[in-house]
Design a protein that fits this description.
By secondary structure, the chain is α/β, with parallel strands linked by helices. The chain folds into two domains: about 180 residues, Glucose-6-phosphate isomerase like protein, domain 1 (Rossmann fold, 3-Layer(aba) Sandwich), CATH 3.40.50; about 25 residues, no CATH class. It has eight helices and five strands. Strand 3, helix 7 and strand 4 form a beta-alpha-beta unit. It is globular and about 55 Å long. The two termini are about 15 Å apart.
Length: about 210
Amino acid sequence: MIKQAELILDELTARYPVLQPVRGDIAAAYEILKECYDGDHKLLIAGNGGSCADSEHIVGELMKGFRKSRPLSEEQKKAIAEFDPDHDLSWTGKLQQGLQAIALTGHPALSTAFANDVDADFIFAQQVLGYGRPGDVFLGITTSGNSRNILKAAAVAKAAGMKVIGLTGRDGGRLNAAADLMIIVPEQETFKIQELHLPVYHALCLMLEETYFG
């Protein structure tokens, strides 16, 4: 782990001492994600309700600059401008490097069609089946660890040769049995679990940004 990533973890646990017991799990999640991105793979994320919003939030931090601007290289800018009808290089400076991440919660046409035509419990599983490839990672966010649609998506991910990370609370629930790694924040009530999920995934996004764009 790079020094800056360690410093981010130090700051996280200083600001949120309650997360000290899961510091090692957060560090391990970072290593899984780093292996994923080192291999030019992608992250798939899903959750329900507040965890749906968290899934979209994570994509927003990974697919564009979070704390850093992440400029394109001059070679990338020139390659894009070559195919621009105006051959205009100036606007390419507004683009930012991203880390591949897809929130499975953001496809309403597919989700509603599958829910109507097949079964709503398996929407995320269907998307993992379509998107997932060996080397990818599935992040399932569920405060209880027992959300049926997350469990089924995790099963498909494992069968596809993907790693599974669970972000939960309470005792981790049934997702414990399917995940390669669990981050179980030490709270019992849903809203309190969700309050701790945000600093955890912010720290992971910051650590990854420092690694690839620092």
